Amino acid sequence: MTRRSYQRLGEDARRNALLEATLDCLAEDGMGGASVRKIAERAGVSAGLIRHYFSSKDEMIHEAYAYLMGQLTGAAADSAHAASEGASQALAHFIAANVMQPNLSSRKVSLWATFIGRVRAGARYAEIHRDSYREFLDLLEALIHPVLVQHGRPAAPAACHGHAIALNGLIDGLWLEGSLGHGLYDPARLPVIALTAAEGILRLPDGTLVRAIAP
Amino acid sequence: MTRRSYQRLGEDARRNALLEATLDCLAEDGMGGASVRKIAERAGVSAGLIRHYFSSKDEMIHEAYAYLMGQLTGAAADSAHAASEGASQALAHFIAANVMQPNLSSRKVSLWATFIGRVRAGARYAEIHRDSYREFLDLLEALIHPVLVQHGRPAAPAACHGHAIALNGLIDGLWLEGSLGHGLYDPARLPVIALTAAEGILRLPDGTLVRAIAP
DNA sequence: GCCACTATTATACGTTTGTATAGTAATGCT
DNA sequence: AGCATTACTATACAAACGTATAATAGTGGC
């Protein structure tokens, strides 16, 4: 009996490789098609290995969701904290980044939607979703507040919160629909559409955000 | 051997019962848990029946998606064509209806997301999605145009189209996030948040849409 | 080079899955 | 009531599934 040769990997590296493989299989085959054997094959390991890292398939999928959302919120936080020339530019960059590559991504949307489809029925999914949604809202509030102050708009916490909810909704919706390659319009239009809409939502002077990132 | 007694149903009625059962199982158990046996049980028939109506499980799921989107777009069209006192009220009602019950529904969102998760990898899913997305955009454009004209805003087709994309994004995002019971805010706030944001996106005078549906 | 540790492979098992098909009971017509 | 039609049940099958476990080869330390 000839055993396949293999290379050992540290615990973190192997674990992350399995989570990445899980996400790859979910993006391609959905929840119904991502079997343990497929995930193992994608990760380049045998199916028996998975039990050494996760106590069940369910746990591995939950962890994959947490891992994905950690990546998405991490990238959003980096974007929010990036160097910029003022509050308007920071907000504009944040919004635009969400409706452009690499965030505008059918893979990311497919994964996000696949997990959202389970939020209603699974407490762990719901918890991960709520935490990341809260984090996105908080990031947006922090970006919106100084912009409102700068333009003399009402900037009380409640107003900022409402704006953050609306802006997050706009970004989510455009990101979702814009990533799916439907061919109904050129996704390159989305940054301007998003920024123009955001100016309206925040009652900013026309061009405040669009001009903040234009050449 | 005692066979279970049963009642015959006409082809359309039985078929729709199966599609409803499919959606119920998908909403509860996801793509990975909705087996043919579960769906049959939910529909109150034996598993062998399904082959008499659908040539495969895959086909049944695709048909369920088309059926769901038919319901959602049908309801949207009804809402768009409902009697109203003017263009602003029609648009306001349409927007508000999308972020309130019965549309604000974790079941609907779970189903929608579950299928969206498959759009990237499945041509049939992508086709159904594109057709319904186009229909929503068209409905919105038709609602937006007279409102812009009424308020002397630029109302060329390209402008309407861009506004429809933005508004649809806003509605989708708020509907999605607002349906999931995260407890971060009261979903009863969403109609006002959505309408206020829509006024901004369309550059309408403050209160145009909010006041159109307030008591 | 030797050895201990352990990451990994291969295999097994019981259950579940989607698909296939023969048989029969419900129902409408005469 | 009798009969033909057919919607539906029950069962079977091969494959796939998630889970479990014994064995072994890779690797670092000495």
What does this entry show, briefly?
Chain A has 215 residues and is mainly α. Chain A has helices at residues 11-33, 36-43, 50-53, 57-81, 87-98, 106-119, 123-150, 157-179, 190-202, 210-213. The mean pLDDT of chain A is 95.
Tell me what the structure shows:
The structure is a homodimer of 215-residue chains. Chain A has 215 residues and is mainly alpha-helical. Chain A contains 10 helices and no strands. Chain A has 2 domains: 9-54, Arc Repressor Mutant, subunit A (Orthogonal Bundle), CATH 1.10.10.60; 57-213, Tetracycline Repressor, domain 2, CATH 1.10.357. In chain A, 72% of the residues lie in helices and 0% in strands. The first copy, chain A, binds a DNA duplex (30 and 30 nucleotides) through helix 3.
Topology of this structure?
The structure is a homodimer of 215-residue chains.
Chain A: H1 11-33, H2 36-43, H3 50-53, H4 57-81, H5 87-98, H6 106-119, H7 123-150, H8 157-179, H9 190-202, H10 210-213
Helix pairs in contact in A: 1-2, 1-4, 1-6, 4-5, 4-7, 5-7, 5-9, 6-7, 7-8, 8-9
The structure holds a DNA duplex (30 and 30 nucleotides).
InterPro entries (chains A, B): BetI_C, DNA-bd_HTH_TetR-type_CS, Homeodomain-like_sf, HTH-type_TetR-like_transc_reg, HTH_TetR, Tet_transcr_reg_TetR-rel_C_sf
GO molecular function (chains A, B): DNA-binding transcription factor activity; transcription cis-regulatory region binding
Keywords (chains A, B): DNA-binding, Repressor, Transcription, Transcription regulation
